[in-house]
Design goal:
By secondary structure, the chain is α+β, with helices and mostly antiparallel strands. Helix content is 19%, strand content 33%. The radius of gyration is 25 Å and the shape is globular.
């Protein structure tokens, strides 16, 4: 964060934050009857980690995230009543261990992705968290939350920065011991339903191999092979039953949940969505078998594999709910923790299969501030080459057109935007409240829309991908929604790269841009990605280019904004985390220095205690204050100013 070592340092922070609210100047907003200007803190701090309810594996407790005083906190209470226990562990997102007594969390204080694993004991709520991996300079991640009486399994690259070995931890004593050593090419360890490692995925040359461990001899047998460019994600294996569950698009355009017969190497489709990929699977906390899948066509969907239960649950949700998602299930799927989305607001609920009752755990639909928010609308248009492009549009609450518009580009590039209800944790809602139409585009290469949509981005990260975004702007202009003279582009990571490319490739289209930890030099980025990105490098080489090939080096350089600064003329805001290991600070420094040498308008905001994500709410408050003032000057929307009472929570 922007630190305050003493009250004498207060002036510097105030200079970053201070400013009166700015009224809109764009013609479509100047005299419009706009809703209440919601304070920025409502979007950034007051909603931090709200919701996220999870039922314990034994079905006796529920945990959720919220704010206690001015701090992010985790709450746990018994379902049969009583006051919740409060655990203040910052912005870490804990989840249940299998014993229903411990909570596990992954902690990355510096933002350098050297994630450590912590453990909370519900039987000792006043005790400090136990850190299982106090190993500086290494990255550890939970593999399995443990069997009912067994150890927690996790992976760590402590031994070799490029490889992840398996370790086990006793939740009672905290003792950690090695379990399996990576032979050098294992990119994934796969859990058995019995709570042990049952399989692994090896990456060799141009293919990946699923190998199953023999329980008796502890030897490995290869059972399945696929290309690294197929979507195949082994999720769980049942060695006794001779089956494995995977998300796979082998032989189809859309990825489906399949059950693989280990002996016959034959897939059986358990669920396939007609228009999009299956993105996630929820497993029974006891038996380890799949319970539900998640897909995201226009609105999010959870589909229970028990069709009768799915129908029963669909009847139980309130009538104003437009979409719902299963968060987790306890052992036997007796209780289902659900997130229910109205157009405005969210219900966290628990469904009891025995009593067929839906119990509300939290509900913010009656918050009067929600009335100032907008609907997020699914949209679709055709790219210049005819490829269908999906996305979302959030419009300010005014009938006047055309509007100033912000194109907010997702990162990845192998990620996607999803629909969100009118709530206070959305970038789209924040900037729609400031007066902008907010367009979010799932350009080619975005996950979730099938193989054809994904592979249309091969070799096109700096080409047709960027044109897809521009085609979205043209669609909004043709529709009368957007003012072509007042369009900004922004985003984080690959979204920041797209913002820079928009200014460089199409001068005059974008009035300004916001780059948050964006890639400035693709060649250097691909060469300096963290060593543990080994599994994803074939995708980068195929879609962007392989630096080992001279022709690819030249192409990577040609589509890097750092080498296109002469074409950049519009105002630019760059935000960088000093500890970022994906887009290192030196790369952003180079871009900013080059633009300043050329006399270009660029502002640079660096957070010394952040990495690839700006996580601390104080830092995000500073960042979004800067962005909203920047956009107000560029597009003519409004800005909130700063509520000085908030400084009291930061003073020593």
């Amino acid at each position: 964060m922007v630190s305050i070592a003493s009250r004498a340092c207060l002036f510097g922070l105030v200079s970053l934050l201070a400013g009166c609210a700015v009224s809109p100047t764009h013609p479509s907003l100047r005299d419009a009857d706009l809703p209440e200007l919601i304070p920025l803190r409502k979007f950034v701090a007051d909603t931090e980690r709200s919701g996220g309810h999870q039922v314990s594996p034994d079905g006796s407790r529920v945990l959720w995230y919220g704010v206690s005083g001015t701090e992010a906190a985790t709450f746990v209470r018994r379902l049969d009543g009583g006051d919740p226990a409060v655990f203040r562990i910052g912005r870490n997102f804990p989840f249940w261990a299998a014993d229903s007594r411990h909570l596990i969390f992954e902690d990355d204080q510096r933002g350098d992705e050297n994630t450590q694993i912590g453990l909370l004991d519900l039987a000792r709520p006043a005790a400090a968290p136990r850190m299982l991996t106090p190993w500086p300079g290494s990255r550890s991640q939970v593999l399995h939350a443990g069997a009912q009486s067994g150890r927690i399994l996790f992976t760590s690259n402590r031994r070799d920065p490029a490889l992840f070995d398996v370790y086990g931890a006793d939740p009672q004593s905290g003792q950690v011991e090695p379990v399996l050593e990576n032979p050098g090419d294992v990119i994934q360890w796969v859990m058995d339903v019995d709570g042990s490692v049952g399989a692994r995925v090896r990456q060799q040359d141009d293919y990946r191999i699923l190998q199953v461990m023999n329980k008796a001899t502890r030897t490995w047998k290869s059972v399945y092979k696929w290309s690294p460019f197929d979507i195949v994600r082994p999720l769980r294996i049942d060695r006794v039953g001779g089956r494995a569950w995977m998300i796979s698009n082998i032989g189809r355009d859309k990825a489906a949940l399949v059950e693989l017969s280990v002996a016959q190497m034959r897939e059986r489709v358990l669920y396939a969505h007609p228009s999009v990929d299956v993105m996630q699977v929820v497993f029974d906390a006891g038996s380890g078998v799949p319970v539900a899948v998640r897909a995201d066509p226009d609105y999010p969907q959870s589909i229970l594999l028990d069709a009768a239960l799915h129908g029963e649950l669909a009847q139980a949700v309130p009538k104003d709910i437009v979409a719902w998602r299963l968060r987790n299930a306890d052992a036997g799927a007796r209780h289902l923790a659900l997130e229910l989305y109205a157009k405005k607001g969210v219900i966290q609920a628990l469904y009891d299969r025995a009593s067929h009752t839906l119990t509300t755990l939290s509900d913010n639909r009656d918050d009067p501030a929600l009335a100032a928010l907008s609907d997020m609308l699914p949209i679709r248009y055709s790219a210049a080459d005819g490829l269908p492009i999906n996305g979302y549009l959030t419009l300010p609450k005014t009938a006047k057109r055309p509007l100033p518009m912000l194109v907010w580009v997702h990162g990845g590039p192998w990620s996607r935007n999803t629909w969100q209800p009118g709530n206070f944790d959305s970038v789209g809602q924040l900037f729609a409240n400031r007066g902008y139409a907010v367009l979010e585009v799932n350009y080619r290469g975005s996950l979730g829309y099938g193989r054809r949509h994904l592979e249309a981005a091969v070799g096109e990260l700096g080409g047709r991908v960027q044109q897809d975004i521009a085609d979205g702007v043209d669609w909004a202009v043709r529709s009368g929604l957007a003012d072509p003279a007042r369009v900004a582009i922004g985003g984080r990571s690959f979204g920041g790269y797209s913002a820079l490319m928009g200014l460089a490739q199409q001068p005059g289209r974008y009035a300004c841009a916001v780059d948050i930890v964006g890639v400035t030099d693709l060649l250097k980025a691909v060469e300096t990605f963290p060593p543990y990105w080994k599994a994803s490098m074939p995708m980068w080489y195929r879609y962007a280019g392989d630096p080992a090939r001279p022709e690819d080096r030249e192409r990577l350089r040609a589509i890097s904004p750092l080498h296109m600064t002469a074409a950049i003329a519009a105002p630019l805001l760059v935000v960088q985390g000093a500890s970022d290991v994906r887009v290192i600070k030196a790369h952003s420094d180079e871009l900013v220095e080059a633009l300043r040498r050329e006399g270009k308008p660029v502002d640079y905001l660096v957070f010394p205690d952040e990495g690839h994500a700006i996580r601390r709410w104080q830092n995000r408050l500073v960042m979004y204050r800067k962005i909203e003032d920047f956009l107000a000057g560029c597009l003519g929307g409004r800005s909130s100013g700063f509520d000085f009472y908030q400084l009291g929570t930061w003073l020593p």
